[in-house]
């Protein structure tokens, strides 16, 4: 065999081997749906674009009490409250003093009959009673401990500690109920792809055992930290290292995360217009595809009712959708 | 009676009034920025401008990928200033147009 033919064969073998290896890696990092995963159907929706009661202008967040739905109506700078059938009940956050009023509400959490609102414009966590009475604010603008720069998500631990996705500060903060700093994850002001670093984190969820899950927005992944706060796991894309995509189990901009009553992890995969459901080890359980509008993506946040049904915030269509298996 | 000085006086007065009105009006800047489909991103840009003195309003035109800023009367910004505000929010201004309000 001539030297040229030998070289040609050699490079052909290298090319084929590399292709097989790469394809295998990609396949290994995708998570097929488990057999028997039941599909979800939309059973109700309400809203539409506007500022009247029951209408929304870019809804961004949602939380459930046992019989009411709380929605961040972002550009209308208010919280709207509905029953589980979508009937409007009340609104708040858009009246009163500067301290009481919302700027741009994002992800929400409910803890012990109080609503916690990540207020992106005012750099605070604003806390209201479920009836709508303003209770207090936590935080102020900045990058020091206890300060925020565009908080995007919040959750509350069983002991009352606040966990905040501090979006532009590229970190997660843990604060006492009164706002005193306890600790943070991430390097303030610096993005990163390695474990424990973030790239615009959008939301957090903490379980009853203090296991923390972070929607690591533009790293297109979920990160998990154990009950001591130590990094434990990450998933999404190739090895969870900032690889976006639409394969099952991959993400393109995660915008919200919730722990369901079934202890599963629900994730809004915004640019992929879907909600993905995982077990606590990151194994994919189900996918709900949510139709976007012409201009905007759809599933920006979701909340899970005790009966397992899902309320999904369709950002582009300015509506709330109720889905059931 | 000499009409010319009266007409000239009226003309100059009108010219002065028009000049004052033109100078007092604000300016609209249309800036092309990628990534506005993500509300977390778009809101960050809005927030950056809302905090800037002299800005009257900020709007996002998703269809055309534009950030539209209108200023208070008499306020103008340089391209460098606008680029810096957008860069500070983590984005890049691709292009810009300017027109009086």
TL;DR of this structure?
Helix content of chain A is 8%, strand content 41%. Chain A is mainly beta.
Structure description:
The complex is a heterodimer of chains A (325) and B (101). Chain A has 325 residues and is mainly beta. Chain A is 8% helix and 41% strand. Chain A is built from one helix and 24 strands. Chain A is globular, with a radius of gyration of 21 Å. With 101 residues, chain B is of the alpha+beta class. Chain B has three helices and four strands; from the N terminus they run αβαββαβ. In chain B, strands 2-3-1-4 form a four-stranded antiparallel beta sheet, covered by helices on one side. The longest helix of chain B is centred in the N-terminal third of the chain and has 22 residues, at 3-24. The mean pLDDT of chain B is 85. Classes of the chains: A mainly beta (325), B alpha+beta (101). The A-B interface holds A 58, 60, 74, 104, 106, 120-121, 150, 152, 167-168, 200, 202, 217, 253, 255, 270-271, 295-297, 300, 315 and B 37-40, 43-44, 47, 50, 62-63, 89-90.
List the helices and strands and how they pair.
The complex is a heterodimer of chains A (325) and B (101).
Chain A: H1 3-29, E1 41-47, E2 59-64, E3 68-73, E4 78-83, E5 88-92, E6 105-111, E7 114-119, E8 124-129, E9 134-138, E10 151-156, E11 162-166, E12 171-175, E13 181-185, E14 203-206, E15 212-216, E16 221-225, E17 231-235, E18 254-259, E19 265-269, E20 274-278, E21 284-289, E22 299-304, E23 310-314, E24 319-324
Antiparallel strand pairs in A: 1-24, 2-3, 3-4, 4-5, 6-7, 7-8, 8-9, 10-11, 11-12, 12-13, 14-15, 15-16, 16-17, 18-19, 19-20, 20-21, 22-23, 23-24
Chain B: H1 3-24, E1 27-33, H2 39-50, E2 55-61, E3 66-71, H3 79-88, E4 93-100
Antiparallel strand pairs in B: 1-3, 1-4, 2-3
